[in-house]
UniProtKB/TrEMBL annotation:
Residues 1-19 form the signal peptide. Coiled coil: none annotated. GO terms for molecular function: transferase activity. Residues 33-133 form the Rhodanese domain. It holds the Pfam family Rhodanese. PROSITE patterns: RHODANESE_3. It comes from Dechloromonas denitrificans. Keywords: Signal, Transferase. This is Sulfurtransferase.
Amino acid sequence: MRHLLLSLCLSLGALFAHAEVININNAELDTLVKSGVPIIDIRLQSEWEETGIVSGSKLLTFFDERGRHDAAAWLEKVKPFAKPDEPVIVICRTGNRTKPVSQFLSQQAGYSRVYNVKSGIKDWIANGGPVVPAAQSIAACRAAKTC
């Protein structure tokens, strides 16, 4: 009986457990992107245009210019290319905005493995990480109404 209760408690605990956010550096970002893990760039359009983007990034602004957001609407745009049971990378300018977004994905949206680029795209670029112009990706996501 005691083993049954212990098993039941462990099973219930697993159901309610949340994955932790994994902070990654540039080398880890490079490896994950090359292995096909989707990357979501949550910055503003003006920021994508200013610096370019990591190739293959999904452009999904989370916070607007005033810091407001609609997490539920944003999450609906994420789901077609990043499922909760699959890993996903989140990037912003310096890593500050991705902290709460990564926690939201992990703790409230049920994503099992969320990688937070801890120093953002500014550090990626400063350390020689490649970027591509954002214009084509912006046009594509605007046409599809996904960014």
